[in-house]
């Protein structure tokens, strides 16, 4: 080795420190990039040369080289956002997205997603988020696929099966005689109406009349008579048909002596619109008889009509929820996550995306609850770049570069002295 070899040692130092400065600059440039993972440059010495001396053989180093640029996958902090489709992962997982052209899978921690015009859940570059589609019962359909919400989908109707009537019947009400379906207004003390749904989602009006029975023979007893307009079940318009009836007994405190669950008569609800002809409805009479005006305290039924999709949202289990105009939410899909045995071996592809490599190993795919991470909605994971640490690295890298440049200028002066020996 000659004196000129020190020039190459200095050059190697300049090169490695230049690479380190590039890594630092990239980290700082991405300090506000969502989901960005910081990198670090590691140096290694170059193969040494052997020289012989009076004490034996020795080694002289030949400078430094870049060993590896590591990706640091430490957890970033979360930023709260206003959009429900903004997602952040706590844990080792990655979102999976597919290239819209090649369909190749990519992996990202940046969860700034949106639903596009076709209903696909996509990132800003148009890559489609991967997950599992669900059937009407919330069960998984098929394999991993693009998550898509059919914006023109319907939520099917549900026929009413149960009604709850919470009412008070005035204990001071007079006895008006036996109930007459042809004169319900004058042969009942009170009436309560509620809309119900058939199997096609069409609404019908059920009216229940309450009649105080003869106190001489039926003390503290009332009759109930549930009716529909006859035209709804193939009868004469403008008349009523009884579809269910019964009695309820009260004690001297105004409470029912036993629960009363009335059921409409089998085959009575034969709707004329070809809906289910076997519909039966159970009526839970949560009724009191106090010395107070007859009133409906509350009433509810469990049916609903068809609904159109009006809003999409995502919950913390990664489910894509469709909210329909009939007030019924439904799970449409579930977002999948992937983790790797060696995430540091992933290859950066730009746009916050990574691809697999031999070093990373294949993805381990799962959903929330299977050990791949947790999802937080209305949140984005911030860059894990530590600016203070990067500026310290910048100072030491700059000093290293200056020192290596000094090696070159000093060696140049030494070579100049050597050349001047011939004068």
TrEMBL record:
Biological-process GO terms, alphabetical: bacterial-type flagellum-dependent swarming motility
Q: Which residues form the Flagellar basal-body/hook protein C-terminal domain?
A: 379-421
Origin: domain of life: Bacteria
The alphabetized UniProt keywords are: Bacterial flagellum, Cell projection, Cilium, Flagellum
- InterPro entries this protein is in? Falgellar_hook_FlgE_sf, Flag_bb_rod_N, Flagellar_basal_body_rod_CS, Flagellar_FlgE/F/G, Flg_bb/hook_C_dom, FlgE/F/G-like, FlgE_D2, LlgE_F_G-like_D1
Q: Name one GO cellular component term.
A: cytosol
Q: Which residue range or ranges hold the Flagellar basal body rod protein N-terminal domain?
A: 7-37
The residues covered by the Flagellar hook protein FlgE/F/G-like D1 domain are 88-152
What region holds the Flagellar hook protein FlgE D2 domain? 168-304
Where is this gene product found?
Bacterial flagellum basal body
The record describes the protein's role as: A flexible structure which links the flagellar filament to the drive apparatus in the basal body.
Family stated for the protein in its record = Belongs to the flagella basal body rod proteins family.
What name has this protein been given in UniProt?
Flagellar hook protein FlgE
Species source reads: Geothermobacter ehrlichii
**Taxonomic lineage from the root:** Bacteria, Pseudomonadati, Thermodesulfobacteriota, Desulfuromonadia, Desulfuromonadales
